[in-house]
Every structure is written in structure tokens, then in C-alpha cells.
Write a structure and sequence with these properties.
The structure holds 2 protein chains of 2 kinds.
Chain A lengths: L1 H29 L3 H4 L6 H11 L5 H13 L13 H36 L4 H15 L2 H15 L12 E3 L2 E3 L4 H34 L2 H8 L4 H30 L2 H6 L5 H10 L3 H29 L1 H4 L5
Antiparallel strand pairs in A: 1-2
Helix pairs in contact in A: 1-13, 5-6, 5-8, 5-10, 5-13, 6-8, 7-8, 8-10, 9-10, 10-13
Chain B lengths: L5 E12 L2 E13 L4 E5 L6 H9 L6 E10 L2 E2 L5 H7 L4 E4 L3 H4 L6 H10 L6 H14 L5 H4 L9 H13 L5 E5 L7 H18 L2 E6 L2 H7 L2 E6 L2 E7 H6 L4 H8 L37 E10 L5 H8 L9 E11 L4 E5 L6 H9 L6 E6 L2 E2 L14 E4 L3 H4 L6 H11 L8 H11 L16 H13 L5 E5 L7 H18 L2 E6 L2 H7 L2 E6 L2 E7 H6 L4 H9 L8 H4 L2
Parallel strand pairs in B: 3-8, 3-9, 6-7, 7-8, 13-18, 13-19, 16-17, 17-18
Antiparallel strand pairs in B: 1-2, 1-4, 4-5, 9-10, 11-12, 11-14, 14-15, 19-20
Helix pairs in contact in B: 4-5, 5-7, 8-21, 15-16, 15-17, 16-17, 17-18
């Protein structure tokens, strides 16, 4: 097991380094941030001074080495636009996105998995057909449109929920969270529901197809022959057996939700990372872009590692034979 | 004797499908006495498993019990609501299935699964459940049950897993246990152990048992009475010795005569087809054996190693990691087969016999050693050697898996010969027809797809495909293992006939010693990657030298009585 984790760490480091090169080069190609940074009527002298100050006159590989050197010392640079350390900037926005994404994924699992198991258990009943049809809608109708409809219905017509923004936040361990407060939860519910729809459809379909397949196996026949009731069979046998593909999707989706909740965050003016990255791209805020993308790759690697470890917990067959 | 514990009268179980009604169980009646073992025998599709599922009330849709009655100690089970049936399942009637690998849940510990079955009918505390489960495991002779109870199914061997399944079936001391092919997936030696244990458990606990199997010999060794099923009906029933000793129904006679162990080695087996004139008791002529070292296998070793990546190789160098363990599948094996000879390769699962077969055929490259056919190497010398000859062909256990489902069998048969210029695309049809006829199939069948054939026909196709390559040697890897006895007899007859007709040399791999003895001149016994004994078929059976061989031979379930007529035939 230790050898497995060590190997994965090596791989992660390699991925991060390659990723940093690609990102650095990619962002370099997009354009010169200097045009955004200083007003067009600045003198050539001031312009030159600022270019030198940021090291933008150096060849790209030197800039990259400078960047990596700073990175090793824990410094990701300062935002050109906000003029504050990038780490602080991301840290200030991260809880909001984290909260939104986690809520969305939990909603998707808590509703999607039971619905999916039901649909797989009774595939021919009309409720199952309705669930499966709805899940196709959830896949295919664009998120932004559903988001707008939700605002129309719940915020404009019924007026029961706020249309956007984040509610009151309380500080837990120095990090501002909004979900424990009433207004915070009110603000959270619509964007989280909106963000969870696609994932919920995915969970439903995965759980349904897994359940259908497993219900036909001898394991279930044997359990039934032992007189075990259907609910216990679903809860103890089926849920455990379908959990591996579900955990995979859960992990992948958690990553992508945190990283790319942009659309939902924009519609509901949620002050999260998505808005930050869009702003930094339009203003060519190079340090923010690089730091953000590196953070995202680190996030994916961490989640994937966690998913792999979860496999070992869920499936005893994978526990043996590790560490070879 | 008191009333029977289970009484089935006029049971009909039908499956309504779009293409019509399948009468899986078509009006059967039988009873099961207390403490009795009833063997239910039949070939695939005879409805024997459906009978078992009907009794326990687990017929999958679209199946339905159409009529009749199933009475457990006088209580009617047919028409009982699902909830009522559930209370009977596991507590009064329980069931054991064929493959313990499939029936136990791989992600739950044995204890979790046993406790679930226990709590299906009883409210027990955790400590009590544990004690009861350990007790149940001890009862089926699982050593060290205190520890084993927290194991996962994959940590047990096949036989142990089946014991666990039996322990679960016994938890509530049911009155009736239905065992559906419980030893079919196991090795002979393990099967023998399970048979002995089940017998003593039945005697000890006074349980009544229905033993469903396709294998007459195992049924014979365990049952008091036997019922023979065919096409959803019971054709014959009676005390085991009577049914097997003096079968009244022609179908039972046919089943018995199809067993290789009941006829002289090399003789054609009785099949339904063999009633044709000239088919009866014809002995396939032996071919003259030339060139004793026609196939020679010298010091062959096959290691399976996990591919190592750069990092793990560095890890091993730095002593951070263990080097990956290599599996030694074949460990220094040497043997020869004479031209025209049939060598049987027997061994239990995991003994390396299939790997060795594939090496001889040139599918696997040996790690060390050489294989020569008529003096020429079968594979080229380099590390990733290529097969050099088309003179060795192979037939696999599962013909359905080895035939491309999207091509007609004509295309599948013609593919190899065309690639090797044995025929041309233009002549392929005639060429294929010739080989189809050689295996007694109609030439018009060339345009059909594999799924349109039965298992036995598919195995004929696989043989035709191997023959079409004009081989000198055919490696048969368990070619009859998945077939019914009567079909098995047909295929064995075909192999016997073809062997003399085309002068084939055979390497016949099987776990079934009866089949091997019937077909082969010499037998090699494999155990853990090595050949422990080689000898003429007769000497292996009559005077095995190695203890392992002796154990294997002793483990074969035998029919109680042999008809004397056969012995001097």
C-alpha cells in the first residue's frame, strides 16, 4: 500500500511539472498582459520600467524558471489586477466554490442513487420509466437555461428564494462558510440544485444500469434463497456492488464541479472561483490564471488518488496484491 | 415410513416468451422422504434447475407456475404470497448453487453475509450471531473458523467457498436443501471431499436433500433415489441402484452408455445417432505409430511476469519495493508424442495444463525450452517469438467464445486457410464444405452465424476450423467440458473417427479422467506446473505410481454397478 501511494505521488509530481510548463506556455501565447496593465498614454520609459519589473522582457524559459523558483518557496506571484498575493486571492474565493460544489454533489448522490436503484430494481414500472426519461432531460437541457428558469420560478414568480449572491457567512476555523446560516442556506439552495442536475442524471443512470445487472446475478438469487428481504438485499448487496463505478463518477464530478462551476456561478452571481478565473482571463491576469490552473490539476490528482484509495476500501479484492 | 417431507404433484412451470410458451417443467410429480437424498438428473434444458427454483419460489419472470402443487409437510407452497414464501426460504427450504464464486458477494466478509442470512429469520445480537456462524462454519469442516469468518470470499479456495455456501444454507436447520450442481465447478478431488461431507451432514442432521446434477456418477454416489428428467418431464424414477443398474427408459440407457467410463477405451460411444446402421460398437482403427518423437517438448518453462515500469524498476533497485512476483505456470516439463498418438494431459485447475497446451500450439512463447514438431521449431527463437507452423492447431473449451459472432461460420473457417494459401478465395466455399462434411455438418450451414447453433454443433465447427488448416497435431483444451453427456459422446466419437481418418496426433487436455482414458493412449498427469507421472492410460488407471495420481483416480465418482455385459464386450 505504501509503495502504491509513493508511486502515485511521483506520478502526481510529474503531472504537475508538465502541467505547469503547458500552462505557462499557453498563457504566454495568449497575449501580453502589459497592454492591460498600464494605461495607453504612459510613456515608453514607464512602460519599459514595468516590463522589467515583472520580468516580462526575459525569454520564456527564464521566466518559467523564475516562476518555478518562486513556487518552490511558496510564492505564486501577485495578481496584476488586484495587486495582492494570488494565494490569498484564491483562498478568499475557494470556500464559496467548495461549498457550492459539495452541496451539489451531495444532492446529486442523495437523490440520484436511490432513484437509480429503484429504476434498476423495477425497470418496467412507469415510475422507473419516468425517472429514466427525466435523467435524459437532465443530461441534455443546458445548465444555464435551467438556472434561468429556476430564478424565474422561485425568485421572480414565487419570490421564495433569493436570485443570486451569497448569504451571511460564519467563520469556522477562520474560513467563512455560509451553509450553517439560514440566509446562507437560502442563497445556496438554487445554485446547488442547478449545478447538481447533470450529476444527478449521471448517478441515476449509473445506479440503474448497475442495479439491473446485479439483480440478475447468482449472488442475489442466493441471498433470496436464504430468505433475505428485498430491502436488505438492495441496501447491503446491491449498494455495495454498484458503489465502485459511483465513487469513480463522484470523484471526477467533484473535481470538475469545483473547477468548472463557472456557468452556474455566473448566473447566480456566486462569488466563487469560476467568476475569478473568467475575470482573470479577460484581463490577462497571468499569475492568477497559472495558479488557478495548477490548483485545478492538483485538485484532480488528489481526488483521483482518493478515489483509488476508496476502491481499496470498497473492494477487498483490490487490497491484496497492492504494494507489488 | 412417515409422510414425505416434500411432495410435488403435477407441477407445470412455463415461460411465456414472444416466440411462444416454453414448457420448462411439464407436469412432474415426485416426493422426498425425510432424511433422503434424491438425485435429479438431466441434461441442460431438461428443466431440472427450474424444478428446484419452482420449489423454493424463485422463478424469474416471465416464468410462472401454471399448475400443480408443492407441499412441504402438507402445507401448500404454490400460490403462497411472496412474503409467506420468504419466511420459508432459508428457514425451511434452502438452496446451494453451482458456482460459489458467483453466489457469494465478493465485497462482503463471510460473517457479514452469514449474519444477514441469520437475521433474515431471527433477531440475534452481534456476539450471538458470531458464535452461531462460527459454529456453522465448523460444522462444514472449515479449519480455524474464528479467523476465517472475517475473510472475504476471494480468500477462500473454490471448495471452501462452496462449504461456506453450504454453511449458510444450513444456518436455520432447514428441512429441505436443494443443491443445484453444487460440485460441477470444482476439481475432482475437491468434489470428492464435498460429497463425503454432504453425505455425513445429511446423516447427522437428518436433512432431506435434492441433488440436481447432469453428472450421473456424482448423483449415483450420493443419492438414495434418482429421478431422470428430459424435456420438462420425469422419465424414470426409482432407487439409485435400480435406475443405474437396470435402466428401464431408453433415455436413461442412452445417458449411461454415453459415459466414457462405461465402455472400452477407443470404442465409439453410444449416442442417439448411433442407432443408424453401422454406427454400433464400431472400434475406431488404430493408426500405425511412426516417429516416436513427432512432437517433442524439452525442458519447457513458462513464467508469467507483470510488466514492470521505470519507477518500479528504480524502486526495486533502491530496495524500496519488492520485485514483482513471477508466476511459474509451467516448470521444466519435457515429454514427447509419437506420430498418430493421443496424449492426455490431466490435472486440476491451476496445474498449468492449459498454459502448456498453448505453448505446444505456439500461442504462448515459452520462457525457456523448446518445442519441436517433426524436428522443426514451432515458434521462432527470439524473445517475442512468432508461431512458425500451421501444422499445430487448437480447439478450445468454449467454441462460442472462440468463434466471431459477427461472421458466418463459413467465413470463420475459410479465414485461416485463405491467409495461408491452402485455398483461394474463389474455392473457399467448396473447401469449407468439405470440412463441414468431415465433421458431419451440412454444407449449407456455412452461411449461418455461431449463435444459430447448439453447443455440440459449435464444437464441431471449431473442429472443422482446426482441420481446415491441414494440421498434423491438434491440441484440444477441454473440448467437451461444457457439453452434456450425450453431446460429449458425439464429439468424442467424432474425434476418434477423425483421428484415424486423418492420422492426427492429439494432445488432449482435460480435467475429466474418464474422458481422457477413453480417448488417449498415454496420459501425463500435471500438478503445480510439473508432470508428475506419464504412462499408458491403463497403467495410470490400474497402477498409479505417484500418490497424487492415485488420489485423482480415487476421487473419480464411480457408478455403483456396472453392467457385466459391458465388461467382456
Amino acid at each position: 500500500m505504501v509503495a502504491f501511494i509513493v508511486r502515485r505521488m511521483w506520478q502526481a509530481l510529474l503531472v504537475i511539472i508538465v502541467m505547469s510548463m503547458l500552462v505557462f506556455y499557453g498563457v504566454f501565447v495568449i497575449g501580453n498582459p502589459i497592454d492591460v496593465l498600464i494605461s495607453p498614454d504612459a510613456t515608453q520609459e514607464i512602460r519599459q520600467q514595468i516590463i522589467t519589473q515583472y520580468g516580462l522582457d526575459l525569454p520564456i524559459w527564464q521566466q518559467y524558471l523564475h516562476f518555478m523558483n518562486a513556487l518552490i518557496h511558496g510564492d505564486l506571484g501577485r495578481s496584476f489586477v488586484y495587486n495582492m498575493p494570488v494565494v490569498e486571492l484564491i483562498a478568499s474565493r475557494f470556500p464559496a466554490t467548495m461549498e457550492l460544489a459539495t452541496m451539489a454533489i451531495l444532492l446529486a448522490s442523495a437523490i440520484g442513487i436511490p432513484l437509480g436503484i429503484y429504476a434498476g430494481y423495477r425497470p418496467n414500472g412507469w415510475p422507473s420509466k419516468a425517472i429514466m426519461a427525466a435523467s435524459i432531460l437532465g443530461f441534455s437541457v443546458p445548465t444555464f437555461w435551467i438556472g434561468l428558469m429556476m430564478i424565474m420560478v422561485f425568485a421572480v414568480e414565487l419570490g421564495v428564494l433569493p436570485a443570486g449572491g451569497r448569504g451571511e457567512a460564519v467563520s469556522i476555523f477562520g474560513i467563512p462558510w455560509s451553509f450553517p446560516t439560514a440566509t446562507g442556506l437560502q442563497h445556496l439552495i438554487l445554485p446547488a440544485a442547478n449545478l447538481s442536475l447533470f450529476k444527478m442524471s449521471m448517478m441515476i443512470r449509473l445506479a440503474a444500469s448497475g442495479t439491473r445487472e446485479i439483480m440478475l446475478t447468482d449472488t442475489i438469487k442466493f441471498a433470496r434463497a436464504a430468505g433475505i428481504d428485498e430491502f436488505t438485499i438492495l441496501r447491503r448487496h446491491v449498494l455495495r456492488l454498484i458503489s465502485i463505478p459511483l465513487v469513480t463518477v463522484f470523484g471526477l464530478e467533484l473535481g470538475s464541479t469545483i473547477a468548472f462551476a463557472v456557468v452556474t456561478e455566473t448566473i447566480f452571481s456566486w462569488p466563487g472561483l469560476g467568476k475569478l478565473i473568467i475575470d482573470s482571463i479577460t484581463s490577462l491576469d497571468r499569475p492568477v490564471m497559472i495558479a488557478y490552473l495548477m490548483m485545478v490539476s492538483l485538485l484532480f490528482i488528489t481526488i483521483n488518488l482518493a478515489v483509488d484509495l476508496a476502491y481499496a476500501v470498497l473492494d477487498p479484492r483490490m487490497r491484496q496484491g497492492d504494494g507489488k | 415410513m412417515t409422510d414425505p417431507v416434500l411432495k410435488v404433484t403435477d407441477l407445470y412451470t412455463h415461460f411465456e416468451t414472444q416466440t411462444g410458451t416454453v414448457k420448462a417443467v411439464d407436469g412432474i410429480s415426485f416426493h422426498l422422504n425425510r432424511g433422503e437424498v434424491l438425485g435429479l438428473v438431466g441434461e441442460s434444458g431438461s428443466g431440472k434447475s427450474i424444478t428446484g427454483f419452482s420449489i423454493i419460489g424463485l422463478i424469474d419472470r416471465p416464468g410462472q407456475i401454471k399448475g400443480g402443487s408443492i407441499k412441504l409437510e402438507g402445507r401448500e407452497l404454490v400460490g403462497l404470497a411472496e412474503d409467506g414464501l420468504r419466511h420459508i426460504r432459508g428457514r425451511e427450504i434452502s438452496m446451494v448453487f453451482q458456482d460459489p464464486m458467483m453466489t457469494l458477494n465478493p465485497v462482503l466478509t463471510v460473517f457479514e453475509q452469514m449474519a444477514m442470512a441469520l437475521r433474515a429469520h431471527e433477531n440475534v445480537s452481534n456476539t450471538e450471531a458470531r458464535a452461531r456462524c462460527i459454529q456453522a462454519l465448523r460444522q462444514v469442516r472449515i479449519i480455524d473458523p474464528q479467523q476465517k469468518i472475517d475473510f472475504y470470499p476471494h480468500q477462500f479456495s473454490g471448495g471452501m467457498r462452496q462449504r461456506v455456501a453450504i454453511a449458510i444454507a444450513l444456518l436455520h436447520r432447514p428441512k429441505v436443501i436443494i443443491a443445484d450442481e453444487p460440485t460441477t465447478a470444482l476439481d475432482v478431488s475437491v468434489q470428492a471431499e464435498i460429497l463425503v461431507e454432504v453425505k455425513s451432514l445429511v446423516a447427522e442432521l437428518g436433512i432431506s436433500l435434492i441433488w440436481i446434477s447432469h453428472d450421473l456418477a456424482t448423483v449415483a454416489s450420493i443419492s438414495n433415489r434418482i429421478a431422470v428428467m428430459r424435456y420438462g418431464k420425469i422419465v424414470e424414477t426409482g432407487p439409485a441402484a435400480e435406475v443405474l443398474g437396470a435402466p428401464a427408459h431408453p433415455y436413461t440407457q442412452m445417458l449411461l452408455n454415453a459415459l466414457p467410463s462405461r465402455s472400452r477405451p477407443g470404442q465409439l460411444l453410444a449416442t442417439q445417432e448411433s442407432h443408424k446402421p453401422g454406427g454400433e460398437s464400431k472400434t475406431a482403427g488404430w493408426i500405425e505409430q511412426k516417429s516416436p518423437n513427432f512432437v517433442s517438448v524439452k525442458h519447457v518453462v513458462k513464467k508469467f511476469e507483470r510488466a514492470t515500469g521505470l519507477w518500479s524498476r528504480i524502486g526495486v533497485k533502491l530496495n524500496l519495493m519488492q520485485p514483482p512476483k513471477a508466476v511459474l505456470a509451467v516448470n521444466d516439463v519435457s515429454f514427447t508424442i509419437a506420430q498418430g498418438e493421443a496424449l492426455g494431459l490431466v490435472g486440476e485447475s491451476g496445474s498449468g495444463k492449459s498454459t502448456l497446451g498453448r505453448i505446444v500450439c505456439g500461442i504462448y512463447h515459452p520462457t525457456q525450452g523448446e518445442i519441436k514438431l517433426d524436428g522443426a521449431s514451432v515458434v521462432s527463437a527470439c524473445q517475442r517469438g512468432r508461431k512458425l507452423t500451421t501444422k499445430v492447431q487448437m480447439i478450445f473449451q468454449d467454441p462460442f467464445a472462440s468463434l466471431d459472432p459477427r461472421r458466418t461460420i463459413g467465413q470463420s473457417i475459410a479465414e485461416g486457410p485463405i491467409a495461408h494459401k491452402l485455398t483461394t478465395r474463389a474455392n473457399a466455399r467448396d473447401y469449407v464444405a468439405r470440412w463441414l462434411e468431415a465433421v458431419s455438418l451440412d454444407r449449407a450451414m456455412a452461411d449461418r452465424y455461431p449463435h444459430q447453433f447448439s453447443g455440440g454443433q459449435r464444437q464441431r465447427i471449431a473442429i472443422a476450423r482446426a482441420l481446415a488448416m491441414r494440421p498434423d497435431v491438434i491440441v484440444c483444451d477441454e473440448p467437451v467440458a461444457s457439453l452434456d453427456v450425450s453431446i460429449q459422446a458425439q464429439i468424442l466419437n467424432l474425434l476418434l473417427t477423425l483421428r484415424s481418418e486423418f492420422g492426427l496426433t492429439l494432445l488432449f487436455i482435460s480435467h475429466d479422467l474418464g474422458v481422457v482414458r477413453h480417448l488417449c493412449d498415454r496420459i501425463a498427469v500435471m500438478y503445480r506446473g510439473q508432470i508428475v507421472e506419464v504412462g499408458s492410460a491403463e497403467s495410470i488407471f490400474e497402477a498409479p505410481k505417484q500418490p497424487y495420481t492415485k488420489m485423482l483416480v480415487d476421487a473419480i465418482p464411480k457408478l455403483i454397478s456396472k453392467r457385466p455385459a459391458l465388461q467382456d464386450a
